[in-house]
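Thread: Newbie trying to understand structure tokens

Hi all, I'm a second-year student working on a class project, and my supervisor (Dr. K.) asked me to get a predicted structure for one chain before our next meeting. I've only ever worked with sequences, so writing a 3D structure as a token string is new to me. If someone could post the tokens and maybe explain what I'm looking at, I'd be very grateful. Here's the chain:
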Amino acid sequence: MGGGLCGINSFAAYYGLGGKKDFEGFDLLILEPKGYTDDQIKALKSAGKVLSAYLSIVEMHPDDSLFGILAEDDFVKSGGTPIMNTEYGTYYMDITKFRIRELLLIRAEDYAKAGFDGFFLDTAGNIELLNIEEEYRQRLISSAAELMREIKSRFPDKSIIQNNALLKLCDLTAGLVDGICFENPPLKTAGNLIWTLSAFKKLASVAKEKGITVFVLQEETADLTCLKSFAIKKLSKMKGFLYYRAPKHYGA
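---
Reply by user tm_fold:
Sure, no problem. This is what the structure looks like when written as tokens:
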């Protein structure tokens, strides 16, 4: 297992704010810090849980407390208009800017002080898919890697789990992170399946070379058949990855 995640044999994830309680039997919990009080965090820690704080490093929702202090040029734009992830109502922050990275580092410090044992860094993978100029995309990817490097430097005793970003960012960060999560492997089409199998092969190679932990997080959805779920769970175990089938709307 990854250096900062030694002894972790199971995990669960809940990004919502409802304070989900069904965490019995899991070693590592990936949680949205804003959904938990100090007392709840202490209780989970007292129960022996290792806590990883959900931290979106590229996308931010207008309801976020930091959104109001962002300037117009703090966002990734296309044709002069900030790019939005319409599925979640979030906007892409321009993490090439030092100011944005510092805001995220301040938030990471808050989570560390709250008692979290590490960070689950989300949304960086989406910049790999943006329809923007390639040189700009590469600068965003490089800046995401730089942010992870700075988190590792400032919080050497905290674990880092990178979510997705398996195309390019993974190549830059495999030596910086303690774990990589493959969230919701695509399975709808034959092309999806081929890509997912390729990603599993890459992750197995990275895990062996760098000694990191690989997590597979799969949401229970209507189009996720029992056969598909079984196949991914079986493949995860064969590769030595940790698998968790999350209930529907675990991010709500």
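A couple of things are worth pointing out once you decode it. The longest helix spans residues 134-154. The two ends are 29 Å apart (CA to CA). Feel free to ask follow-ups in this thread.
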